[in-house]
Amino acid sequence: PAFSGAPLSTMVFSIAKEQRDDLVGRMADSLAAVGFHNYGLTFTDTRAKAEEIEARAFSVAEVASSTTKESWSAGTGGERPVIELIRLYTKKAAELLQAEVIRCGEDAMDTSAGAGDAGGDS
Q1: Are 27 and 97 in contact (CB under 8 A)?
Q2: pLDDT tens string for the chain (122 positions)?
Q3: CA quadruple 64, 68, 71, 73: dihedral positive or negative?
Q4: Which DSSP category does 76 fall into?
Q5: At what angle do helices 17-39 and 46-67 cross, to 10 degrees?
Q6: What is this structure's pTM?
């Protein structure tokens, strides 16, 4: 097979930094709100966790933009249409955010159960 000469690192998917930052801010706020309203806690480092989640979601969409060749995308150069990549990006971010909320909730319940056990009756 002939080499096309195209750089291997060419990615089709990109989102403006402002939009990515907006998603990070919204996810950080959501984590903080869930912690406070559901568990009565102030979760720390929600911004850092939101940045990690967003980066992972972006990476999934970025890889899919150059590696997924589907018959339904014929005529687009073989890559996924941008709207499909945006859907993948937001879906992955939502899944990762949900997993983090569940993890934080389990940690909160473990902490409160441990505090209850430590009190004891004498």
Answers
A1: yes
A2: 444 444 444 556 788 999 999 999 999 999 999 988 888 888 889 999 999 999 999 999 988 887 755 544 444 545 567 888 899 999 999 999 999 988 888 887 787 776 655 444 44
A3: positive
A4: T
A5: 130
A6: 0.72
Contact between 91 and 23 under an 8 Å Cβ cutoff? The reply is no
How many other CB atoms sit within 10 Å of the CB of residue 21?
12
- Give me the residue label for tokens 């060419």: 10
Supply the DSSP symbol for 6. Answer: -
Residue showing tokens 């940690």: 107
d(CA 97, CA 30): 9
